[in-house]
Amino acid sequence: MSRVVVTGMGVISPVGNDLETFWGNLQAGVCGIGKIERFDASRLKVSLDAEVKGFDPKAWIDTVQEIRKSDLYMQYAMGAAKQAVEQSGILDSGLDRERFGVYVGSGIGGINSTIRESTKLYEKGPDMVSPFFVPMMISNMATGAISIRFGAKGPTLPVVTACATSTHTIGEAYRAIKHGYADAIIAGGSEASINELAMAGFINCQALNLSDDPSTGSLPFDRRRGGFVMGEGAGILVLESYESARARGAKIYAEIVGYGNTADAYHITAPDPEGDGAIRAIRAAVSEAGITDEDEIYVNAHGTGTHLNDAMETKALKAVFGKRAYDLHVSSTKSMTGHMMGATGAVEAIASVLALHDGVIPPTVNYREKDEECDLDYTPNEAVRANITCAISTSLGFGGHNACIAFRKV
Fold this sequence. Notes:
It is a single chain. The longest helix has 17 residues, at 72-88. Helices cover 34% and strands 18% of the residues. It folds into 2 domains: 4-247, Peroxisomal Thiolase, Chain A, domain 1 (3-Layer(aba) Sandwich); 255-408, Thiolase/Chalcone synthase (Peroxisomal Thiolase, Chain A, domain 1, 3-Layer(aba) Sandwich). It is α+β, with helices and mostly antiparallel strands.
């Protein structure tokens, strides 16, 4: 079996559209949450989101025609993928393209295209629906477009597991390389679902925070928490066998050493309050990673800022780590990025890798009031330096999907 390492990363996010800006803002505690500007939100009960700012698809996609044929989630994915591939230098390595894959998922896919073309149908008739509607809508098309762009002809697999989507894509890509089915895989996720329809749906299932103050919009683990804030963007990593990376002299940011994938089998939206599925996913990743009492650990928690999730996730960490849970460095970067849905796992995996690489724990911003159910060290408000040796990232999605990946410093 092969060791698997990270050799490239790219991000489009509410706190930066390149790796340097993104990581600098996370360390500084910059919050990307603000008033909704993408559309007129006057009919909604919420007024906050976490939008990507200053994104120009022409910087990442070659022609206007290609841009017009792609949904925004695909454009975000391509922007992050080009950053990751260029940083890795993998295309200059003589890589066997038939052993080069793409695992990029989206929780919702091209929902903006669906809304736009549905409006055309009802207002102007079926002949006005775009011939590109289907490829813009379907959730696998970011994977397809990235595969075409970089000539990746190996294992190619999108994943759709709601908020756990891109943690699963990274985990499944890790397994494919580890067990010899590929030498390298572009892995991650993308989401662009900030619109009135999607937000109305999340409001009506009581998932979003109704605060109108950006400083109280996303409050993971805080007693005042009342739901998450909708975010968007993309995160992409280049995963590669250790042998391949060493042979071509690539920079290695971290090694992936563990992965857990479980289901709650409990409820379509609510997490199991006892955290059974989350416990098993975290325990599987920690066990495979060979994490011991000698390791200093960072946990990038799912930390949505909903009451049930944060209490359950805290309980799960205690169940896995016992008394050592109080020694963990925990934070939720959703306090800054909002909940980026299908992209969130990959973006948080990137934050975990950078925390491990640089020895900096990004904070949980706007944390003020301790909750008795959430009593771990959540790195409140300011980044801290720590000589961590391992990082784990958890993602817990609607439908009861749980995923956890573990990284080790190289």
